[in-house]
């Protein structure tokens, strides 16, 4: 999908990709992706990113996963359980400085929703704001969470958004960090107004760029317009040439190992996926049908 394209060079020949299957339904949808890409020049290097405690009790991902991502520069990640405890920052984002989170939401031909003209890219700043994970207890029953926003990171994500818009022939950006660019129309809008306008007329939006909390809300809303998180891909773009692409839905523990998972979010960069969805005959349970994950995979492979 073009929304992920920026300025990086494409490697020719066999591309080694770090595969992080994830938890719950993650291994199932990852297996679906591997089967579909079996004929492609891709070598998978599977790694586990479960957090471990390093020296001094600091949480970190395994050295093997760290080395693999830095070596391959490209990762595909299934859904992971989100730890709810002190000391667990978003390590995959911060470890590799994956500063830009790119969510393209495009209406899918063959799957009808009330909105059939959605074509929006939401770009989130990944490393600051609520994602910084800076919080502490003050007294019993009171927790303070600190949201850091810096000029440097805000400028960085704004420059990325404008460059991304240029490269993908988009012309209208709505953002929360002020930066100017003459050849692209720029608007500012508060998060509440953006939500209101989004459900009234999503066609008025092209590219949105904002801090992570507001972006998380708006990107989920955009996903709802086209069918939900199960049909929405996501790319985390790194400052050090490391990128991680992933599904954005949860681990689906209630349907894990039942062949009911919808792999579309993890597959959506593949053109063949759209061919299977287009005629409306290969919709999984997530999209209101009864097609199994394995059947969906076979339909694409045929």
From TrEMBL:
One GO MF term attached to the UniProt entry: magnesium ion binding
Alphabetized SMART domains for the sequence: Iso_dh
Catalysed reactions listed for this entry: D-threo-isocitrate + NAD(+) = 2-oxoglutarate + CO2 + NADH
Record domain Isopropylmalate dehydrogenase-like: where: 16-300
Stored Pfam families: Iso_dh (PF00180)
GO cellular component, one term: mitochondrion
Keywords for the protein's UniProt record, in alphabetical order: Oxidoreductase, Tricarboxylic acid cycle
EC numbers for this chain: 1.1.1.41
Keyword Oxidoreductase applies: yes
Statement: the UniProt record of this protein carries the keyword Lipoprotein: no
Gene Ontology biological process terms in this record: isocitrate metabolic process; tricarboxylic acid cycle
Assembly description: Heterooligomer of subunits alpha (IDH3A), beta (IDH3B), and gamma (IDH3G) in the apparent ratio of 2:1:1. The heterodimer containing one IDH3A and one IDH3B subunit and the heterodimer containing one IDH3A and one IDH3G subunit assemble into a heterotetramer (which contains two subunits of IDH3A, one of IDH3B and one of IDH3G) and further into the heterooctamer.
Function according to Swiss-Prot or TrEMBL: Catalytic subunit of the enzyme which catalyzes the decarboxylation of isocitrate (ICT) into alpha-ketoglutarate. The heterodimer composed of the alpha (IDH3A) and beta (IDH3B) subunits and the heterodimer composed of the alpha (IDH3A) and gamma (IDH3G) subunits, have considerable basal activity but the full activity of the heterotetramer (containing two subunits of IDH3A, one of IDH3B and one of IDH3G) requires the assembly and cooperative function of both heterodimers.
Family: Belongs to the isocitrate and isopropylmalate dehydrogenases family.
Protein name, UniProt field: Isocitrate dehydrogenase [NAD] subunit alpha, mitochondrial
């Amino acid at each position: 999908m073009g929304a992920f394209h920026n300025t990086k060079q494409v490697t020719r020949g066999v591309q080694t990709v770090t595969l992080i299957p994830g938890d719950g339904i993650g291994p199932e949808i990852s297996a679906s992706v591997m089967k579909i890409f079996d004929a492609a020049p891709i070598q998978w290097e599977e790694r586990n990113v479960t957090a471990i405690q390093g020296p001094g009790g600091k949480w970190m991902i395994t050295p093997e996963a760290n080395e693999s991502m830095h070596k391959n520069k490209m990762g595909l990640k299934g859904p992971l359980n989100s730890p709810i405890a002190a000391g667990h920052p978003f390590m995959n984002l911060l470890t590799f400085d994956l500063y830009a989170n790119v969510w393209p939401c495009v209406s899918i031909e063959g799957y009808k929703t009330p909105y059939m003209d959605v074509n929006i890219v939401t770009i989130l700043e990944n490393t600051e704001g609520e994602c910084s994970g800076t919080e502490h207890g003050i007294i019993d029953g009171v927790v303070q969470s600190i949201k850091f926003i810096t000029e440097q990171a805000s400028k960085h994500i704004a420059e990325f958004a404008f460059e991304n818009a240029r490269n993908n022939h988009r012309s209208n950006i709505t953002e929360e960090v002020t930066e100017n660019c003459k050849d692209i129309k720029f608007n500012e809008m508060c998060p509440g107004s953006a939500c209101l306008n989004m459900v009234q007329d999503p066609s008025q939006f092209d590219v949105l760029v904002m801090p992570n909390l507001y972006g998380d809300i708006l990107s989920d809303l955009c996903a709802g317009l086209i069918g939900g998180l199960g049909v929405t891909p996501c790319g985390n773009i790194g400052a050090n040439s490391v990128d991680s692409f992933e599904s954005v839905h949860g681990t689906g523990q209630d349907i894990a190992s039942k062949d009911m998972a919808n792999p579309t979010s993890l597959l959506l960069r593949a053109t063949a996926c759209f061919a299977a969805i287009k005629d409306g005959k290969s919709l999984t349970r997530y999209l209101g049908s009864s097609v199994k994950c394995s059947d969906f995979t076979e339909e694409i492979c045929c």
